[in-house]
Design goal:
It comes from Corynebacterium glyciniphilum AJ 3170. By secondary structure, this protein is an all-alpha fold. It has one domain. Helix content is about 60%, strand content about 0%. It is built from 19 helices and 2 strands. Helix 4 (about 110-125) crosses helix 10, helix 4 (about 110-125) packs across helix 14 and helix 5 (about 135-160) crosses helix 18 (about 425-440).
């Protein structure tokens, strides 16, 4: 059977002409023509848009990426708070009470410095993984040298008879007493902090009741020679920052420094636990004074003080130390009263502030650059602030607002410019080179031998750098 296709189904293309076909060249891999060149050229990539202005693009990378800038921001706020306290008035003539600046920063700014100093000690000695072996001995030597340098600087500044209470001699002694505690973990450090907060106020109270020494405003080198006993008692129990209670802030800060401060959960815990601790400290003290008969007992048992005098101590703190007529004074929580409730309240506010700035700098780090730069060189700036107020003398009271504004503007501008150009502050650079050099000189690094502590600590440090859990602590002083 045959099938016939309609004519419409026939191809309309021309038929090949008879004869031999054209011979095509076959590429054998050795010809000059690359088959890839026969492909269509790729489309040109669009030119990248110009990036926005950044601090690193303008000035180059500044700071160490391992550094937790939230700590610097908190330290910068503490410094500005102390500048405000030392310059602006404490009494508000309109409300007949403390000013807002006094209520916010009195006692709390210095305590924040203390807690941050404890964090510095923890970072210098290993951070989340404390040093051991030779590395621990080296860090202890460096820390001891740092403490001696700060103590010596503070005693030298006290010879100028500064217009404010000089905190540096107390800080130097606190750093020195923290050296034996560098092997403790978080739980042991918290126990030490609680012990100092509980026993320290009692020791101060009993020593003040004994009244066998003269409390000095600013102990210096000359007082160590002429009044050695009074100077030691002032540093330990009688000064504005007595070591027996302020060691609680150092121990608390060391415990915080052993935590991973880059974790969001750690930052939130600091915020929450700090708020709870501050509320309990102030709340229990207020209940005992206002509702449990504490104020009445203070009025009845304290000789030579009326109700206004007692309220002034509660609002502004004692002049020197608390009265010792009754143990009820240990239930107060005023500025620099150094009672258990005052220590708890100020410690809680310090933790809350640190947690808040750690959270803020997670997203607003660039906006906090002036504050971070200020906190990275507080030793230099605090020393300059002390010298400035000492030179002005009583003239500060006449134009306190103007002098405060001048100091804040100069501090922020200088700190930002110096940090972008040079990094560490001038005094911080000297202190770092001195302490680190002494540590490496007295306990040199050994890459070989039976003692493996150096290599083990180096391995841990490298691992921490990789996980971004360590920071450079050179600027974290006072």
């Amino acid at each position: 059977m045959s099938h016939h296709l309609p004519a419409s189904h026939l191809s309309s293309t021309p038929r090949p002409t008879p004869g031999p076909s054209h011979v095509r060249t076959i590429w054998d891999g050795e010809a000059d023509v690359d088959p890839a060149s026969l492909r269509p050229p790729p489309e040109p990539e669009p030119e990248p848009e110009p990036s926005r202005w950044t601090k690193n693009a303008a000035f180059g990378p500044s700071g160490d990426p391992r550094r937790v800038t939230g700590l610097d921001a908190a330290r910068g706020m503490a410094l500005l708070g102390m500048v405000a306290l030392h310059t602006l008035p404490a009494y508000n003539e309109v409300t007949d009470g403390p000013t807002l600046v006094w209520s916010l920063f009195a006692g709390h700014a210095a305590v924040l410095f203390g807690v941050l100093a404890g964090i510095t000690v923890a970072i210098l000695t290993g951070g989340t993984t404390p040093h051991h072996g030779r590395a621990l001995r080296r860090s202890r030597v460096s820390l001891t040298m740092r403490a001696v340098a700060i103590l010596s600087l503070g005693l030298a500044l006290s010879e100028l008879d500064p217009a404010i209470y000089n905190i540096l001699p107390f800080y130097g002694l606190l750093f020195l007493l923290a050296v034996p505690l560098t092997r403790l973990r978080i739980r042991g450090l918290l126990v030490c902090a609680t012990l100092c907060a509980t026993v320290g106020p009692v020791l101060i109270f009993l020593t003040s009741r004994w009244n066998g020494y003269t409390a000095l405003d600013n102990p210096g080198f000359s007082t160590f020679i002429t009044m050695p006993t009074d100077t030691v008692f002032t540093l330990l129990v009688g000064g504005a920052y007595p070591v027996v209670t302020w060691m609680s802030y150092i121990c608390l800060g060391m415990a915080v420094g052993r935590m991973n401060l880059r974790w969001l959960v750690t930052q939130i815990r600091l915020l929450v636990y700090g708020g709870i601790t501050a509320a309990l400290g102030y709340g229990i003290s207020a209940y005992l004074i206002d509702y449990a008969g504490g104020f009445a007992r203070l009025y009845e048992l304290t000789g030579g003080m009326d109700a206004d005098d007692i309220q002034a101590v509660l609002d502004y703190g004692p002049e020197g130390h608390l009265p010792t007529d009754t143990w009820w004074w240990l239930t107060t929580s005023g500025p620099h009263s150094n009672t258990f409730f005052a220590v708890a309240a100020s410690s809680g506010l310090a933790l809350l502030t640190i947690g808040a700035f750690l959270l803020i700098t997670r997203t607003l780090n660039d906006l906090c650059t002036p504050l971070i730069a200020t906190g990275s060189m507080t030793l230099t700036l605090y020393t300059t602030h002390l010298l400035f107020l000492t030179a002005l003398g009583d003239n500060v009271e006449e134009h306190s607002s103007m002098y405060f504004l001048v100091q804040v503007v100069v501090i922020l501008l200088f700190a930002t410019a110096w940090s972008l150009a040079r990094g560490r502050g001038p005094l911080e650079e000297v202190l770092t080179r001195l302490s680190r050099g002494c540590g490496q000189l007295l306990v040199p690094v050994k890459n070989t031998g039976g003692d493996r502590s150096d290599s083990d600590d180096s391995a841990r440090t490298a691992q921490e750098r990789h996980s971004h859990t360590t920071v450079r602590p050179e600027n974290e002083v006072s």
